[in-house]
Amino acid sequence: MTSADQRPQTEDQPGSPPVADIARLADHVGQAVTVRGWVHHLRSSGKIRFLVVRDGTGLVQGVLVKGQLPDGDFQEFDRLTLESSLILEGLVRAEPRAPGGFELTVTRLEPLQIPQDYPIAPKEHGVGFLMDHRHLWLRSPRQQAILRVRDEVFRACRDFFHGQGFVLVDTPILTPTACEGTTSLFETDYLDRGKAYLSQSGQLYLEAAAMALGRVYCFGPTFRAEKSKTRRHLTEFWMVEAEAAFFTLEDIMGLAEGLVSYVVQEVLAHRGQELKILERDISPLEAAVPPFPRISYGEALARLNEGGQEMAWGEDFGGDEETLISQAFDRPVMVHRYPRQCKAFYMEADAANPELALCVDMLAPEGYGEIIGGSQRVADLEVLLTRLAEHRLPREPLEWYLDLRRYGSVPHSGFGLGIERLVAWLCGLKHVREAIPFPRLLDRLYP
RNA sequence: UCCCCGGUAGCUCAGCAGGUAGAGCGGGUGGCUGUUAACCACUUGGUCGGCGGUUCGAGUCCGUCCCGGGGAGCCA
């Protein structure tokens, strides 16, 4: 847990040993320390008692031996239950029998609060039950590990873009209209000005920012009111989106490949312990180094039809098709140049074949499906106006977007990366709902 | 919105051909000086999702509604 290295210390209590993070107990062998946290596990064997304590940095087993701490404190042990909050003082010992390698001989035990009937037991639970108790489920080692991987993904994304000269530009969450028009939006009242909608993408605003700063990205929540009920869907999810002036489709594919491979390598380098807790086979992650294979929609379609999965030209791929395509490769695959008819209005047509869009989807291996969608954007005002008409989108709310084509329009491209899908793949999760602290699903708004 | 599966103790589940409610875990009590989801003994624990129907009798069969899970479409 490298992040513990720089954790600021809180004030020690007079008369008590210094407070130590469990992750740093190695630095305190032979010393008296104070540990503050929650009871993770309890065992009693007559005159010797064990409790495993969690403090957010790790787990440590405390040993209570009668005579080595006040009798009153020893008896307090019997009142403890799972998730009791407490303060322990003790002597740090190297102990080969202990999972972390260190143990605490407890010299003082002070319960802070003792729960009755903590709902989550150290046994198997159903998904529905755990989701109802998500606020408590987060305390489990597995969920902690996922959240730490997620944190690493966020950090790595920001590092990558910063290193590539991209500027973080925050796009609005409350928007006057749809970005793409096709998907359903969450609607809300906006004071006295009618309806507002929760953003389903920062892309259009990011295009404006790219015309100011060249290379930009945004990182925020995204909302889709679709009645999707699959392992790959949330109604509220996080997306990192990039947009760069003068980038072609080829440029943006290189950027997407660079981002994903960098994030994977950072997670492998810094979150190996968490991946181990998750029992993740890391060989598919280790393989995710450039170059990622690139195939066209036409090639992908041909592969599917040869494999017996009959599909007509012009249709978008579903989850099953994505899985079949990705199974042919050992790393993420980029499928480019889909038929324009199944893609969004803002995508530039391929000059070599105007029926195709200059777009790309990156499919994660192991059936995790699309993690990135990107494209080169329409740069010409007249073309864009035609597209809006074709898609029957209202022009007035997008006049500002059209301005970008009136005032110094340039070729530009961008993509969006779904964070939860990436985290789910990295962690080997069965469902994206575990990749976000408090998932919002079709039929779930609690807790 | 559509298709499939499910709802029995706090949790995970079993319940035979329709005959009147079970286990493990958890909780409680006691025992044990090195336990690793400790172990042993005893004990606590139920509106069988709701409503209606068939039947002498329904957890079990039928209808319907509610809730949960999985999948499709759409998307990241």
Task: Characterize the structure shown.
With 447 residues, the chain is an alpha+beta fold. The chain folds into 2 domains: 2-113, OB fold (Dihydrolipoamide Acetyltransferase, E2P), CATH 2.40.50; 131-435, 2-Layer Sandwich (BirA Bifunctional Protein, domain 2), CATH 3.30.930. Helix content is 28%, strand content 26%. It contains 13 helices and 18 strands. The chain has an 8-stranded mixed sheet. Helix 4 crosses helix 6 and helix 4 (141-163) packs across helix 13. It is elongated, with a radius of gyration of 26 Å. The two termini are 28 Å apart. The mean pLDDT is 91. The protein binds one RNA strand of 76 nucleotides through strand 1, strand 2, strand 3, helix 2 and strand 11.
Please state how the strands of the largest beta sheet are arranged side by side. Answer: 6-10-11-18-17-16-13-12
Structural class: alpha+beta
CATH topology of the largest domain: BirA Bifunctional Protein, domain 2
* Low-confidence runs of at least 5 consecutive residues: none
Quick structural gist:
By secondary structure, this protein is of the alpha+beta class. The chain has helices at residues 71-76, 127-132, 134-137, 141-163, 203-213, 249-270, 272-277, 283-286, 297-306, 319-326, 381-390, 399-406, 419-427, and strands spanning 32-45, 48-54, 59-65, 85-94, 102-113, 167-168, 174-175, 187-189, 195-198, 215-223, 236-245, 294-296, 333-336, 349-350, 353-357, 359-364, 369-376, 412-418. Helix content is 28%, strand content 26%.
